[in-house]
Write a structure and sequence with these properties.
alpha+beta; 22% strand; 28% helix
Length: 185
């Protein structure tokens, strides 16, 4: 990250994806946060399109897009019916809602766009309900739900959540994540 003048590496001593996100939220200075893990590659126009959606859709608090795979060993790829287990999804049409039960509009973690006001409320709420800290990866434990928790926080604020086909993320999938053992976990 040294190439970018405003880049800052934030170290979080406590284990867990949610704790790392909270540390990033505290340190970030912008009005829009985009969550990108080390195995995600944003489309070349992702940031520009995310900012365009932010301006065009002030009613949204959280949004994301398509997450396609790049398998380290394509011949080991699981059937596409199991892709959601690898956090992969194809968004074929733009859709949004402020109903937490509308799952098709709930964005997933890779490339998750979060307005500052939602991140701030989410951070404050986790100070009061620490159980939310347990909703994501921690070491070897495979559990996901923090991104949905962030989206639901936006909904509780009267803001919507959505997915957009223009937002493209590639998820790098190593060989071991294609194993039956991993997918069952």
């Amino acid at each position: 990250l040294a190439w970018h003048l405003a880049a800052v590496i934030v170290r979080e001593e406590n284990l867990g994806l949610t704790r790392a996100r909270l540390a990033g939220f505290r340190k970030a200075e912008g009005e829009l946060f985009i969550l990108v893990d080390d195995d995600n590659v944003l489309g070349v126009d992702f940031i520009g399109r995310a900012l365009e959606i932010a301006g065009r859709c002030p009613h949204l608090g959280v949004w994301g897009g398509s997450i396609s795979p790049r398998f380290e060993r394509p011949e080991l790829a699981p059937p596409s019916s199991l892709y959601p287990l690898l956090t992969l999804r194809a968004v074929t049409q733009d859709v949004w809602s402020n109903d937490p039960e509308h799952h098709a509009s709930t964005p997933w973690g890779a490339g998750l766009c979060v307005r500052r006001e939602v991140a701030s409320r989410y951070s404050r709420e986790l100070e009061e309900r620490s159980l939310g800290l347990e909703l994501d990866l921690q070491g070897e434990r495979l559990l996901y739900g923090g991104d949905t928790d962030i989206a639901y926080t936006g909904c509780s604020m009267g803001l919507g959540k959505g997915v957009f086909k223009a937002l493209q993320v590639e998820h790098l999938i190593p060989e071991e994540r294609c194993s039956e053992e991993y997918l069952c976990r």
